[in-house]
């Protein structure tokens, strides 16, 4: 049996940093949240990691929240507000483009047909 003694840091056994480079960015956030509950790393260090990671996503509101956590007395950078506006525009455009498909799959008769078939190939033959 191997036991972790009190003089060894738990951080040396954490594989998050090694594995995260192979994961989707959105899957790394739950890991960082888990690490924050374990108090293995300093809270500020984890917040900085979250902020850095969020720079490459469209999760702008979350980025602003993390920024406020790091810098409670500062306004977020203007670039974040501009990015948020672009993300909202893109979301609106995608919602408009997909509205007919969403409406079709929201119909009860279509939902029943989809539920009866196991794969998409069966839908085309029905």
Please give a structural write-up.
With 126 residues, the chain is mostly helical. Helix content is 68%, strand content 0%. It is built from seven helices and no strands. The chain has helices at residues 16-20, 25-38, 43-54, 60-70, 78-106, 108-116, 120-125. Helix 4 packs antiparallel against helix 5 (78-106). It starts with 15 loop residues before the first helix and ends with a helix.
Order of helices and strands: HHHHHHH
Report the sheet with the most strands, covering strand number, pairing sense and barrel closure: none
Alpha carbon gap, first and last residue:
59 Å
Total of DSSP H or I helical runs spanning 4+ residues: 7
Q: Overall mean pLDDT score? A: 86
Topology of this structure?
Layout: H1 16-20, H2 25-38, H3 43-54, H4 60-70, H5 78-106, H6 108-116, H7 120-125
Helix pairs in contact: 2-3, 3-4, 4-5
Question: Which terms would index this structure?
Answer:
flat, mainly alpha, about 70% helix, 7 helices, about 130 residues, disordered N terminus
Short description, anyone?
This protein is an all-alpha fold. The chain contains seven helices and no strands.
């Amino acid at each position: 049996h191997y036991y972790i003694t009190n003089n060894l840091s738990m951080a040396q056994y954490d594989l998050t940093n090694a594995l995260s480079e192979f994961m989707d960015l959105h899957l790394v956030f739950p890991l960082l949240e888990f690490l924050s509950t374990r108090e293995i790393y300093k809270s500020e260090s984890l917040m900085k990691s979250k902020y850095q990671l969020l720079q490459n996503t469209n999760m702008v509101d979350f980025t602003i929240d993390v920024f406020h956590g790091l810098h409670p007395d500062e306004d977020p950078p203007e670039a974040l507000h501009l990015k948020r506006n672009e993300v909202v525009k893109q979301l609106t455009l995608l919602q408009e483009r997909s509205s007919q498909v969403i409406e079709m799959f929201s119909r009860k008769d279509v939902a029943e047909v989809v539920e009866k078939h196991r794969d998409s190939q069966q839908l085309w033959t029905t």
